[in-house]
RNA sequence: GCGAGAGUAGCUCAGUUGAUAGAGCGUCAGCCUUCCAAGCUGAGGGUCGCGGGUUUGAGCCCCGUCUCUCGCUCCA
């Protein structure tokens, strides 16, 4: 385990050293949980996006793309439930240093009181058997009534406080109820702090609370509010999907573990609109399709597993995660959710617009059900990087660090190098480089010994190196060196392009 | 937010009881001409996280502050 944790450190520093990922605003000591993609990272990230887009939009006739704005009408987030569900009142116990959700503490307290009543009822049943009139007992027993009044009072105060965003009142409630920390047993609490997980800002020149808008915490809502636009203008027939890649923002209380959990991150998601009643069929379909996509990257299957949710979000009736064995253990990489018609219904309600689809086959209109696939782009990036990062022991106790990236995702596809920096070899290598750069990201490198140059390319995951040597000048052949096997193959220069094209073809992966 | 640890060159780090800031690697230039990182010569690079204090004198001692890392709470 310590070894694996070490691995995350190694990947983080390798990422920095070779220009994959830098910490944001590093010259100002950095900004926690925000990262920038460097010259290599931006290429890898772009290739992942393209590959996903190709698999989702390119390969499916009934899926189209969308690029919705990050800013949306504030009512969007009321409708989606994020305004209410995405803000947690938090409180710390000063003695145990444990943090709790204030609402959970209060709920647990209420639950305790409720259990007392149930205990009393159970006692009554035991004592009086069939003669026990439970309904009457619940309606008249002084203890029960007292407890019920307590609960109503607590819930009432809680609701008033929350509706008014009155955190002091929440704290007062916790103190009045004499709730103690389960760990320290003390009632020594900090003030209650509200953590809104959505970032907000103001639109318009004049700051005014009426103009508060949010940075989207998920890209999905942009799809939902556009679903009818796309359906009508694209003449889409159910079932169909809308795919989108975009940034999302969450004000995580604690966000760590490199790019795994960031405040600003990127999602690749697809909302699939289906006939009500058929959602489970499509849910299963997309679970299979999505795991297939991950496995098409060629990473060992043991890195992946499904995790089915038992506790569901407010909008879902089934949910499953594809988890990846990151350096810090199995964690969520992608979520596949059956979101029912919750979101569209909510938007109908809040907008007053009909968001129904007329199904010619059934000759009826309905609000479609939605199956969502949502994969973290940055997490996919980290997954690929951590699976690719390899420290190899070679003969003579030598070591090499190589990124065994899926070759079609590598930032640089081929490096061209002259064996020596003289005898006309650089000119010949340049010629090959200048031709290849139209089709592939290429590097030209003539500095240092060949071995050193190979290792530099290994470190950034370049799958192929083309070496121009003296024989090249005689018979127009070069060697192509393979990143993973380190073996060289001598081929004619005019075959290089077709060889590369075949090796980098994604047909096999996507078939 | 709490607790713990850390902050000196691009990276990894050293820096004694307080006295002109160091190494290795990397980078760049030149030499060498070599197919899997270790040849030679040279150069560049630091207001020691920031601010204040003690002192003739602070990378080092004291106070404050910021940031990062780890743990806890949270995580469609």
Short description:
This protein is an alpha+beta fold. It is 40% helix and 24% strand.
Model description:
With 511 residues, the protein is of the alpha+beta class. Helices cover 40% and strands 24% of the residues. It has 18 helices and 23 strands. The strands form seven sheets. Strands 3-9-10-16-13-12-11 form a seven-stranded mixed sheet, sandwiched between helices. Strands 20-19-21-22-23 form a five-stranded mixed sheet, with helices on both faces. Strands 5-4-6 form a three-stranded antiparallel sheet. Strand 14 and strand 15 form a beta hairpin. The two termini are 37 Å apart. The model has no long low-confidence stretch (mean pLDDT 87). It binds one RNA strand of 76 nucleotides through helix 1, strand 4, strand 5, strand 13 and helix 15.
Proportion of strand residues? 15-25%
As a whole number of angstroms, the C-alpha radius of gyration is 29 Å
Low-confidence stretches: none
Give the class from helix and strand content and strand pairing.
alpha+beta
What is the tally of helical segments?
18
The chain-level mean pLDDT equals 87
Largest sheet: 7 strands, mixed
Span of the ends, CA to CA: 37 Å
């Amino acid at each position: 385990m310590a070894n694996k944790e070490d691995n995350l450190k190694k990947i983080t520093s390798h990422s920095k050293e070779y220009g994959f990922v830098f910490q944001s605003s590093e010259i100002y000591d950095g900004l926690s949980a925000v990262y920038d993609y460097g010259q290599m990272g931006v290429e890898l990230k772009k290739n992942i996006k393209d590959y996903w887009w190709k698999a989702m939009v390119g390969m499916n006739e009934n899926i189209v793309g969308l690029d919705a704005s990050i800013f949306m009408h504030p009512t969007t987030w009321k409708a989606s439930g994020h305004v209410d569900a995405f803000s947690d009142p938090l409180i710390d116990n000063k003695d145990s240093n444990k943090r709790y959700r204030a609402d959970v503490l209060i709920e647990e307290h209420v639950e305790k009181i409720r259990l007392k009543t149930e205990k009393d009822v159970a006692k009554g049943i035991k004592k009086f058997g069939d003669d026990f009139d439970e309904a009457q007992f619940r309606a008249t027993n002084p203890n029960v009534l007292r407890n019920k009044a307590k609960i109503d009072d607590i819930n009432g105060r809680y609701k008033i406080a929350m509706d008014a965003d009155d955190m002091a009142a929440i704290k007062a409630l916790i103190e009045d109820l004499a709730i103690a920390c389960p760990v320290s047993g003390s009632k020594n609490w900090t003030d209650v702090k509200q953590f809104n997980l959505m970032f907000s800002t103001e639109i318009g020149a004049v700051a005014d609370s009426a103009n508060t808008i949010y940075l989207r915490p998920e890209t999905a809502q942009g799809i939902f509010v556009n679903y009818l636009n796309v359906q009508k203008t694209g003449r889409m027939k159910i079932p169909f999907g809308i795919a989108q890649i975009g940034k999302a923002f969450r004000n995580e209380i604690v966000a760590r573990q490199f790019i795994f959990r960031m405040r600003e991150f990127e999602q690749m998601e697809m909302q699939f609109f289906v006939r009500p009643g058929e959602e489970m069929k499509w849910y299963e379909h997309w679970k299979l399709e999505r795991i297939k996509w991950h496995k098409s990257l060629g990473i060992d299957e043991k890195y992946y597993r499904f995790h089915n949710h038992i506790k569901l979000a407010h909008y879902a009736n089934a949910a499953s995660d594809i988890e990846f064995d990151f350096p810090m253990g199995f964690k969520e990489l992608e979520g596949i959710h059956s979101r029912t018609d919750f979101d569209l219904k909510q938007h109908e309600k809040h907008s007053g617009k009909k968001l129904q689809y007329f199904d010619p086959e059934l000759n009826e209109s309905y609000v479609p059900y939605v199956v969502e696939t949502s994969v973290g782009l940055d997490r996919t990036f980290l997954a690929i990087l951590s699976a690719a990062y390899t420290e190899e022991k070679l003969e003579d106790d030598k070591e090499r660090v190589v990124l065994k990236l899926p070759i079609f995702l590598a930032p640089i596809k081929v490096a061209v190098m002259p064996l020596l920096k003289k005898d006309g070899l650089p000119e010949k290598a340049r010629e090959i480089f200048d031709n290849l750069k139209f089709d592939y990201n290429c590097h030209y490198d003539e500095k240092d010994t060949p071995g050193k140059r190979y290792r530099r390319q290994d470190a950034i995951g370049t799958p192929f190196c083309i070496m121009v040597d003296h024989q090249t000048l005689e018979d127009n052949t070069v060697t192509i060196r393979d990143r993973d096997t380190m073996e060289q193959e001598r081929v004619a220069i005019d075959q290089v392009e077709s060889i590369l094209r075949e090796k980098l073809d994604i047909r096999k992966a996507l078939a």
